[in-house]
């Protein structure tokens, strides 16, 4: 996977997390507290600036009641 593909995936993941967060009526700080990650870390994930740790992806998926594959499915 090229760097461009990875950046595109990170942006799509961030966008999906933002959409899910908004559906729950949460702001970044609230979601960060609920999944026990720093607000700045979550913000960087949402904006596609960092490649999140797998443990963070698991926490996010669990919070939204989905599997990791569902979270990473950008066709929905």
Describe this entry's structure for a reader.
- It is a single chain.
- 67% of the residues lie in helices and 0% in strands.
- The protein has five helices and no strands.
- It has helices spanning 3-23, 28-35, 39-46, 54-63, 68-71.
- Helix 2 (28-35) packs across helix 3 (39-46).
- It starts with a helix and ends in a 5-residue tail after the last helix.
Oligomer: single chain
- CA radius of gyration is 12 Å
State the total count of DSSP E strands: 0
Structural class: mainly alpha
Report the span from N to C terminus.
22 Å
User: Uncertain runs with pLDDT below 50, 5 residues or more?
Assistant: none
Q: Provide a count of the helices.
A: 5
Task: Please trace the helix and strand order, writing H or E for each element.
Answer: HHHHH
Biggest sheet descriptor? none
Helix content class = 55-70%
Query: How much strand content do the residues show?
Result: under 5%
Average of the residue pLDDT scores: 93
Which geometry do the CA atoms define? globular
SSE map:
Elements lengths: L2 H21 L4 H8 L3 H8 L7 H10 L4 H4 L5
Main attributes of the structure:
0% strand; 76 residues; 5 helices; mainly alpha
Question: Could you write a compact summary of the structure shown?
Answer:
By secondary structure, the protein is mostly helical.
